[in-house]
Amino acid sequence: MTFTSPVLSYTLLSPMLILLGGALIGVLVEAFVSKAKRPIVQLTLALGVLTLALFQVWNIRGEQSLTPAMGSIIIDGPAVLLQGSILIISIIAILLIADTEHFTALPAALPGSEEERRAIAMGTQVTEVYPLTLFAVSGMLMFPVAGDLITLFVALEMLSLPLYLMAGLSRRRRLASQESALKYFLLGSFSSAFFLFGAAYLYGYSGSLDFAGIQASVIGGSGNDVLLLIGIAFLSIGLLFKVGAVPFHSWAPDVYQGAPTPVTAFMAAATKVAAFGAMLRIYYTVFANAEWSWSPILTGIAVITMLLGSLVAVTQRDVKRMLAYSSIAHAGFLLLGVIALNKSGLDATIFYLFAYGITTVGAFAVVTLVRDSSGEVTDLNRWKGLGKRSPFAASTFAFFLLAFAGIPLTSGFIGKFSIFSAAYESGATGLVLVAIFSSALAAFFYIRVIVLMFFSDASEDGTGVEIPSILTRSAIVASAAITLILGVYPTPIIDFISDLATFIR
Fold it and tell me: By the 8 A CB rule, do 248 and 191 touch?
């Protein structure tokens, strides 16, 4: 028996390795650095690691390889674009996470216990959230570049497990936060189980777990189609859960509402990019020749996701739950790009993911500013007259809502126009009409919030707007600037995406 040593391309793997190394160093910082110095050390480390990883992603643009890690990782144009998008979103999100006011002082303590009160009185800050974030980001970077189902599952768990913990770290409404974390964990475990069942069925169909082997079986038609159909269905459940598509969306409103708002922002934006990136690779390459098996089902899921997300969002009175159902509707819009199965659909989906992710982080950043003596105020009735009390917060939030609605001169308009056009080119005219109707319906509740903020009498219930820290202000300004630039002058980024966005097989 001959042992063959593994051949690794460390340059192509460097963004993920940098994130993992930074996360491990963050764990050591938690163990050996004093409490007083931990916050600044962890923040500096996290920002430095994310920036360095982004620099490395830029350096490997244009590189293509099926074997940087012996076939388990694939580096190509879409991989670079998706990894870059995740890192940019994460850098902005980490600025929000740095505001430790949102996190409990002692996660291990029972909510409301004397131990917890003592920790709060001592000014204890949770800093383990930084290495948890880095671990999650490393899993997100691996997810859209996985070359086999084993690596894909490992990446899924790497990005999910830290998020399960982070969702339960809210300083206020601790029980609601822990409930959301438990719900996210249990439902996520079920989705992971379905994912593994799908992998097992696909192995039974093709005799292989790597994408190339499964793709060869699909093209050759050598396997049992029943195993293929069941495998695709179960695998899709695991992926659709992460993007919050109906009927696998039930976790999203509760988790978005209960989790600390910076974690919600990070989760809503970066996770969606990673999950849709994996879906694009799988459906555009592995299952492209089996479109007959998954396209009708995915079309139906897209329709009900768009309609339910838009309809239920209209009835919400909590701003975070409203944004959660808005996220579900946007997942439906993004599915159009997957269903299109053409170059335009791939380009549009990558652009939409980046634009939507940036806007989402900015919107949740504004939510963190509206507070009373007990913490964040998310009841929309108490946002009345916000434009008179804080023109900055209300105006920026209104701008982000208009971007979600797809109003011209925002990134949302360019994203929706591109993805609707790609779906129309593929012949999915009926799906585009449903998407336009859902988008118009969604615009109603966005505009309703704007009217509430600017054209209603101010509430006299103690609701105020906190002066944002320099980090939060930077996150809001950066998100607003990118949203505006992508809406006014999107040509450079669209051309850049178009040049790189080609899967290798």
Answer: yes
Q: What's the pLDDT at 300?
A: 93
Residue pair 198/232 in contact (Cβ under 8 Å)? The answer is yes
- Residue 493 is predicted with a pLDDT of 94
**Separation between Cα atoms, residue 439 and residue 424, nearest integer Å:** 16
Angstrom CA distances, 54 to 5, 43, 299, 390, 408, stand at: 30, 16, 34, 35, 30
Alpha-helix residue ranges (DSSP H) falling in 207-249: 211-220, 225-243
Count of CB atoms within 10 A of residue 112's CB?
A: 10
Average pLDDT over residues 149-164: 93
Stretch (H or E) spanning 371: strand 370-372
Residue 351 included in any domain: yes
Name, of 4-13, 177-186, 329-338, the range with top average pLDDT: 329-338
Query: Looking at the domain assignment, is residue 76 inside a domain?
Result: yes
- What single letter denotes the amino acid at residue 164? Y
Count of domains for the chain? 1
Closest C-alpha among 367, 362, 153 to residue 259? 367
What is the token pair recorded at 348? 């549009």
Place of tokens 């659909």: 345
The three-state secondary structure class of 73 is strand
The helix (run of H) or strand (run of E) holding residue 464 is: strand 464-465
Contacts of 296 (CB under 8 A, 6+ apart): none
pTM above 0.85, yes or no: yes
Residue range(s) defining the domain that contains residue 96: 10-500
Question: How far apart are the C-alpha atoms of 43 and 272, rounded to whole Å?
Answer: 24
Is 234 inside a domain boundary? yes
Instruction: Give CA angle at 179 (175, 185), nearest 5°.
Output: 145
Structure tokens at 33: 């650095």
CA neighbor of 354 nearest in space, from 164, 472, 486: 486
Q: How many CB atoms lie within 10 A of CB 145?
A: 29
Q: What is the pLDDT at residue 170?
A: 82
Position 92 pLDDT exceeds 60: yes
Q: What is the pLDDT of residue 50?
A: 96
Tell me the three state secondary structure of residue 469: coil
Rounded distance, CA 266 to CA 67, Å?
Answer: 31
Parallel/antiparallel/unpaired status of strands 464-465 and 375-376: unpaired
Do residues 155 and 143 make contact, with C-beta atoms less than 8 angstroms apart? yes
Q: Are the beta carbons of 138 and 132 closer than 8 angstroms?
A: no
User: Does residue 490 fall inside a structural domain?
Assistant: yes
The answer to whether 241 and 188 have CB atoms below 8 angstroms apart is: yes
